[in-house]
Every structure is written in C-alpha cells, then in structure tokens.
Amino acid sequence: MMQLPRFLQRLMPARWKRRSGGDALFSARQGRWGEAQAERYLQAQGLRIVGRRVRQGKDEIDLILEPADPARRPLLVFVEVKTRSTPLYGGGRAAMTRRKRYALIRAVLRYLRRLPPAPFRIDLVEVYGSADAETPPDIIHHKAAVPVPASRLFPRRRLPRHRRFS
Fold it and tell me: For residue 129, which of 66, 81, 97 has the smallest C-alpha distance?
C-alpha cells in the first residue's frame, strides 16, 4: 500500500488508519484463546457445544450450546465471548454496545428461523487474562445478558394501505 504524506495522515480520521499487522494478529489470537477458555468453562457447567463462530450473513455468533443431559428441558444458549487482558476501562460487558447487541440478536433470529420453535437465551462470557499469563483466567458468566425485545420476536405485519380499517 502506498504511504501517504505526513500532512495527509494527520487529516485522516482515526477510524481510517490501519492497525499494524502485529496488533491485529495479537487480537485475533487473544480472541480465539478467550473463546476456548469460555468453551471449557461452559462444558464444565453441563453444556454441550453445537456450533463455534457461526456466521449468519455479516454477523457472527461465537458459541452455540445446549444442555448435555438429554433429560433436561431443551434450551439453546447463544454465547458472546468478550476477552480482555484486564477488567479496567469497563470490561467486556461495557463493550456490548447497542449496535453489537442488535447484530447479535439479528444473527440469533436468523439462526432460529431454520429450526422448530424452542426456548433460547443469549449469554455473555467475559474472559480476563491472556494466553501468555501464568495465572488462570478470570471468567464471568452473565446468563440472559442480552434481552430480545418482543417486537423482534413477533414482528407486526402491516396490512397494505387499501386493506386497512380505521
């Protein structure tokens, strides 16, 4: 890629500037490590993995799980994993902005369209630590952390104009 002159680089918004390759690779490796830690933790809680990094259009669901015990009531658990090296600056829960919540809800509803109706919940798992650290990671599991509005579950169908009644 062509290097821009310094005066043009200063004029560019921060979001246009590319991250260095080392930072992006570290973030991806750290995220995969956090997902593996969350997966191990959730399996110890009695859940079985159904899917990892499931893409639904442009959105992604980190983990999809269900109860490992067949006698338990069927339930799909969709998990968003947020990995941070430290809980400072708000942690993983603060990183779930409204835009990210709605992208996750959109992906979950697209996934559920292919299945018969079943109860589900969307969890958030925060993983604090790093793959290079000697200490085990701190894991915080928020059950049903992302509520799904009823308007998203049961969208109202609008009648065409000529069929509306006053």
Answer: 81
